[in-house]
Structure to design on (117 residues):
């Protein structure tokens, strides 16, 4: 009986920039926005130094990509029963895929690991 219930929740380990981690449990229907709100409302005691002013600037990074707010855990096709590791960062806006100007300069310094020439 309990095995079927296992499919109804997704264990997620969130990692801060500082390296601190905290484990949470979410539903496959939870979106990135839902997760950010939940974490903000249940901010872990050990994370006091990293407290942010609003859940709206919390962003999730999964496998190197920012998750947009409406993406659900179910949509990520995560392996069932395994803890999924994501990074939690505070960032006002998501990087635009093709923005020019200052962002571009920022991008080149950020990482050259994956440039296709």
């Amino acid at each position: 009986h309990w095995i079927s219930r296992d499919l109804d929740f997704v264990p997620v380990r969130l990692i801060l920039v500082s390296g601190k981690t905290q484990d949470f449990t979410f539903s496959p229907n939870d979106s990135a926005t839902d997760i950010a709100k939940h974490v903000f409302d249940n901010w872990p005691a050990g994370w006091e130094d990293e407290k942010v002013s609003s859940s709206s600037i919390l962003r999730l990074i999964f496998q190197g990509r920012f998750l947009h707010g409406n993406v659900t855990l179910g949509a990520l096709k995560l392996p069932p029963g395994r803890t999924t590791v994501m990074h939690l960062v505070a960032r006002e806006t998501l990087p635009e895929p093709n923005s020019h100007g200052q962002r571009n300069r920022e991008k080149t310094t950020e990482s050259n690991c994956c440039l296709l020439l």
About this structure: The chain has three helices and five strands.
